[in-house]
Amino acid sequence: MPLEAAPGIAFAPERRRGRLRLRLREGADPLLQATGGRLPDTADPYRLSVGLDRAGTAEYLAEEVRRALLPDRIPEGQATAYLLPGPPVPVSVRSSDGTVSFDGTRVRTD
């Protein structure tokens, strides 16, 4: 992950576990832009659940990343271009009516 894409990181301890979370610049990630930033916690690729036995390690990691970020090197405001690749597109979808697949050239329904 390019450092200019993530100007912040935080570790938040909770009752049974903690969460390590990257904060991305607006416009840096096509996935967050497409979802309007409304991904559920279970689908957020920038959030990591951490067991309380690893809380010290997670806090250390967050502090080291914050030191590496050097705020004066990260541009403020929205990114002018995506800094991260988008997720892969599903190549097959199944429903009660059948399956649709895509091989990169053709769409096939079964």
Write structural notes for this entry.
Residues 2-66 form the DUF4429 domain. InterPro entries: DUF4429. It is built from 2 helices and 6 strands, in the order E-E-H-E-H-E-E-E. It is α+β, with helices and mostly antiparallel strands and 110 residues long. The chain has one domain. The strands form 2 sheets. It has a 3-stranded antiparallel beta sheet, covered by helices on one side. A 3-stranded antiparallel beta sheet has the order 4-5-6, with no helix packed on it. The protein is flat.
What's this entry about, in short?
The protein is of the alpha+beta class and 110 residues long.
Strand pairing plus helix content: what structural class? alpha+beta
Distance between the termini: 38 Å
What about the largest sheet?
3 strands, antiparallel
For the secondary structure, the number of strands is 6
Strand order of the largest sheet: 1-2-3
Helix content: 10-25%
- Domain count: the total is 1
Please, what is the average pLDDT? 88
Strand content: 25-35%
Stretches where pLDDT falls below 50 for ≥5 residues? none
Protein name: DUF4429 domain-containing protein
Pfam family, one: DUF4429
Region (Disordered): 86-110
Organism: Streptomyces griseoviridis
